[in-house]
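Q: I'm building a small set of examples for a reading group on sequence design. Run inverse folding on the following structure and report the sequence directly after it, with nothing in between.
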């Protein structure tokens, strides 16, 4: 039964996350509520995001919504950031990472309220000044992750990139930052494939559905649904953490 829950969590979180970012605000707290170890949760989340991000990026690439020259400019930065983030998270104890995760969930919720500029331009060049911020976002994605897609989408939209091009770049960078983190988690023994595989199957399904309807869907209701669910999940996670420690 656990694999079915993981599949459903992956599908819903990635569906929402691909369209508006912050899918990790759903799957990480939901898996914490299943009682799974925090290192295994984060590593499984990186594994599923790696595969689902590549699948959605590939669809947008075939539809010519992405310029690979720009993707190759941002990708290495995301990869290095993901490796550094994975090393940082792997060095923390279970309790320290759990508290770190809870605090970042609250911060990521605030990030989800950032207003994305609704540009009608067809700009397809990433400004050089945005690249350092991508490295920081890659580190955050490798160490924890929820909200990183919102950060990237916000950065690209503020830079004047089109919506679908922003999604494509975000998916490509997420694929690379998660790949770097997965390598670290695998080598440190934190990657549990019994958790990662059903989550990944659900994530790939959600990603494929979302990229096919991205240009037909209003994001306002999706964003408010995400925020409402996140607030409820954060309350439950914080209650669980403090009830175990006090």
């Amino acid at each position: 039964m656990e694999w079915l829950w993981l599949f459903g969590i992956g599908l819903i979180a990635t569906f929402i996350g691909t369209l508006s970012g912050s899918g990790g605000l759903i799957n990480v707290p939901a898996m914490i509520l299943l009682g799974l170890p925090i290192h295994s949760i984060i590593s499984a989340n990186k594994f599923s995001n790696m595969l689902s991000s590549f699948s959605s990026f590939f669809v947008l690439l075939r539809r010519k919504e992405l310029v690979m020259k720009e993707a190759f400019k941002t990708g290495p930065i995301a990869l290095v950031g993901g490796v550094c983030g994975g090393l940082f998270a792997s060095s923390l104890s279970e309790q320290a990472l759990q508290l770190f995760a809870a605090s970042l969930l609250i911060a990521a919720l605030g990030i989800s309220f950032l207003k994305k500029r609704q540009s009608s331009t067809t700009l397809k060049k990433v400004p050089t000044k945005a690249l350092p911020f991508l490295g920081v976002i890659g580190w955050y994605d490798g160490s924890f992750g929820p909200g990183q897609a919102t950060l990237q989408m916000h950065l690209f939209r503020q830079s004047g990139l089109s919506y679908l091009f922003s999604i494509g770049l975000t998916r490509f960078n997420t694929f690379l930052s998660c790949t770097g983190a997965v390598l670290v988690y695998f080598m440190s023994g934190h990657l549990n494939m019994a958790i990662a595989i059903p989550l990944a199957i659900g994530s790939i399904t959600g990603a494929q559905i979302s990229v096919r309807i991205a240009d037909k869907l209003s994001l306002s209701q999706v964003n408010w649904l995400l925020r409402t669910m996140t607030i409820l999940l954060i309350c439950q996670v914080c209650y669980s953490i403090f009830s175990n420690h006090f």
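The chain has one domain: 2-245.
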